[in-house]
Structure formats: structure tokens, C-alpha cells
């Protein structure tokens, strides 16, 4: 995984991007579920601003942006972006493991198809812009 | 236009907007002299995307809206080719197509 096709820095960056995206989705979901019923948009905004979990959401978003910019320094956008689809898989898996949610057979098929798609993308070169991209 | 059609339109537009936001972030890696300019532009556009998607959720159930967001993988790939000049091979397109189908299957059952 650390050869010319998969530079270690890029592999780590993509793994961190998927991990942060997964954490963000799960924390956001937990925060939204914990919000009180709001009758207006203003009440909703105030409730979000007062809930400490949304500080964590903003921190995760900031970390995600910093990491994603580093990934894009070393890979095509059309190469890196498809890898983030693996967070659909990790969120689905963690929902089963952590939240005890049920997984439908069609979702298992979906996971296999997503992984196959990411494998196809991983078989293409990570940068096609020649000298424009930063060297590893 | 029915509320459902308006919701679908907003989600589709939000995926196009995300494509442009991601393209601007990638531009920051290619244009070092204006790196911060591109990052700010990209973040601003991605905030617009979140607002559009939030607006769409007023008209659509999440279980309907979320699968449509996987169109962003197609938008990003198209814009990477057209605006950034990346070479998108048939295998990369095949991967994006499989991801589009797979994510739809996962979230459609959620």
C-alpha cells in the first residue's frame, strides 16, 4: 500500500478523511436527536448554539477541512472524492455495532457495490495533472 | 411546481454546488499564489450547499433526499474533468457509477 500507486501520506489522509466523516455523521446525528422540539427556525438555531455537542461538530468539520486540503495537495479531486463514499459503509457498520440497528440484505449488497466502486477508482493513477500536483 | 419537485430540485442543485466547492478547494492546491482565496471561496460555496440541502429537507424526507446527494460524486468527477483538466479514465467512471448505485442501496434501506 506504500508503493508508487498508493503513497503512504495519501493512504493515511484518505483514512483520516473517512474516519472524520464517520465521526461527524454519528455525532451530528446524536446531537440532532437530542435537540428539543422547536417551533421556529430561530428557536432551532438557538438550541443548536447552546448544545455543547455542536462545538464538537464544528471542530470535526474544521479538522476535516484541514485534512482534506492536504489530501488534495497530493491527489486528483476525481480520485480522492470517491473514497469518501466509504463513510457510508462505516456509518452503516457502526450503526449496527454501536447502536444495535438492523442491517437489511440490500444494504449489504450496497456495501459490496460501493467497495467494488472504490476498488475500481483505486486502480487508476492518483494524479493526472503532472507537474501541477505536489510531488510525494 | 409541487413541494416534492422543488425539494428534489434543491438537492440536485446542492450537489452541483458541492461540485464547484470541491473544485475550488482543489484549485487551492494548484494555485499557490492565491491558495487562501480559493479556500475561502470553496468554504463559502460549501456553506451555500448546506443551506440548500437544509432547505430541501423542508420538502423531502431524509430517506428521499440523502440518496440523491450521491450524485455529488458524478458532479465532482465531471467538474474535475472540465474545470481542472483531470484525466478521468473509463475505469474511474465505472467506479463512480458503482458508488452511485451502492450508496443509493445503502441509504434507501436506512
Q: Could you give a short description of this structure?
A:
The complex is a heterodimer of chains A (136) and B (110). Chain A is an all-alpha fold and 136 residues long.
Total number of beta strands of chain A: 0
Secondary-structure class of chain B: mainly alpha
Nearest-integer average pLDDT of chain A: 83
The strand count of chain B comes to 0
Oligomer state of the chains in this structure: heterodimer
Mean pLDDT across the residues of chain B is 90
Count of discrete alpha- or pi-helical segments spanning 4 or more residues of chain B: 5
Rounded to the nearest angstrom, the distance between the terminal CA atoms of chain B is: 28 Å
Poorly predicted ranges of chain A: none
| Rounded Rg of chain B | 15 Å
Helix content of chain A: over 70%
| SS element count, helices of chain A | 6
Describe this structure in words.
- The complex is a heterodimer of chains A (136) and B (110).
- Chain A is mainly α and 136 residues long.
- Chain A has one domain (8-132).
- Chain A contains six helices and no strands.
- Chain A has helices at 8-33, 41-50, 53-74, 77-83, 86-99, 105-122.
- In chain A, helix 5 packs antiparallel against helix 6 (105-122).
- In chain A, 29% of the residues are buried.
- With 110 residues, chain B is mainly α.
- Chain B has one domain (3-108).
- Chain B has helices at 3-30, 35-56, 62-69, 71-82, 90-108.
- The chains are: A mainly alpha (136), B mainly alpha (110).
- The A-B interface holds A 65, 68-69, 72-73, 76-79, 81-82, 85, 88-89, 92, 104, 106-107, 109-124, 128-129, 132-134 and B 22-23, 25-26, 28-30, 39, 43, 70, 72-73, 76-77, 80-81, 84-89, 91-92, 94-110.
